[in-house]
Amino acid sequence: MNQKQATSELNILKQDYGIRSYEIDAGGRLSIPSIFNLLQDAASNHALRLGVAVQQLLEKNYTWVLSRMMLKMDAFPGWRDQVRVRTWPSGIQTVFALRDFEILDNADRIIGSAVSAWIVIDADKRRPVRPTSFADQINSVEDMRAFDHSLNKLPRIDTADVENRFFVRYHDLDINQHVNNVSYIEWLLESIPGFGQEGFTLKELELNYLGEAFKGDRIVSMCREDSLSGTRFSHTILREDDQVELVRARTYWNK
Predict the structure, then answer these.
(1) CB 150: neighbour CB atoms within 10 A?
(2) Angle ∠(19,25,28) on CA atoms, nearest 5
């Protein structure tokens, strides 16, 4: 192993998880929100090891916010199955710090992968700052990607086939005191026609996080069907009172 390979290996976190009963859905498979929770947990643990975790940045009045993400799934493990999450920082692009993920089953086969873009914000001003000041700590593995995909801004939808409304609860908040990224995923899933039916499984989910929501906000989750087969959907999540757009997303399903 050469020095470059050794450096790359040191900067890849590998974390094992056993799927617990409360992480599966009604079909007995690892739920989509639980997948994102595993990825978030692995990313947080790796950031802590690198010295750039949220708690460490808050000491300097900065924090991380997830801006864009795309997940691809080929298979879903069940209760008590073992999975391994591999994650690594994969580069810096303008204001974005990139992070990739792979999910492997107990036979070491890749069953899921994700790419993500994060921003560092000033905790008081809520404005982005360039992550280049943390570049030496992040130490990106720039020659390795989970898959090639440009995390561009998704189009907004102005009409919807389904609209659902939710209130932000204390349970939805994270350490930044705003809605956790997984709660948005739960809200958009609830608005998909056919979600939860047998044989209706996620293939791809791409998200743009555009704004912040806080305890007591009223949320509107809008879903538009983009295919006659019911396998492609576009999503927008708004804050109802001022119509501020919080999330754009699109999902692709196997049916």
Answers:
(1) 9
(2) 70
Phi and psi, residue 149, nearest 5°: -165, 130
Residue listed under structure tokens 């864009």: 68
Helix, strand, coil percent content, the chain, rounded in steps of 5: 20, 40, 40
Query: Cβ distance 245 to 234 under 8 Å?
Result: no
Q: Residue 72 — left, alpha, or beta (φ > 0 → left; ψ -120 to 50 → alpha)?
A: beta
How far apart CA 169 and CA 222 sit, in angstroms, is 19
The helix or strand, by DSSP H or E, that contains position 89, with its residue range, turns out to be strand 82-93
Can you give 125-147 as a three-state secondary structure string? CCCEECHHHHHHHHCCCCCCCCC
Encoding tokens for residue 106? 């107990």
Encode pLDDT of 164-189 as tens digits: 999 999 999 998 899 999 999 999 99
pTM value is 0.92
How many Å separate Cα 25 from the centre of its chain?
18
Interval 194-250: pLDDT, tens: 888 888 899 999 999 999 999 999 999 999 999 888 899 999 999 999 999 999 999
Are the beta carbons of 224 and 216 closer than 8 angstroms? no
The distance of Cα 114 from the centroid of its chain, to the nearest Å, equals 8
